[in-house]
Fold this protein.
Amino acid sequence: MRSAFPAAFAATAVLLAPAAHAAAKASAVEVVQPWSRPAAVGTNGAGFMTLTNHGKAPETLMSVETPAATQAQMHQTSMAGGIMSMKRLDAGLALAPGQTVTFAPGGYHLMLIGLTKALNAGDKVPATLVFASGARIKIAFLVGSGPQAPGAMPMDMPMDHMRH
């Protein structure tokens, strides 16, 4: 009598193949130290992290989804003539193979607009990074003071008082 196990295993492997492929795409981008600052409900928060594309193909971070805010937008802060301003990255953020991009105060960052709950020290804010390839990476921003980048704006500067 033949066992049904090999046939069942083969059918399961075929069903799981698309999921494994998606996981392989997602694994090409590494996310390190996702963190956020404490913020009150109804205000704006920020998300920071470091992304590295370990793949052989370019990848573009297109958007970020989170239940913690009514919107999540990618921005780049710059300083010109002594005035700090932010530019929204509507076309996403491209990551060349081998490239590392750090989201930090005073540079690239995520704006968490219209917080649906307070972000208190020690909380974890769930989010999903959505890439042009279709890859989706689930992360959690740890709320706290986070690493401070050299030359970054002060940690106590409110994000909603900057020029957009």
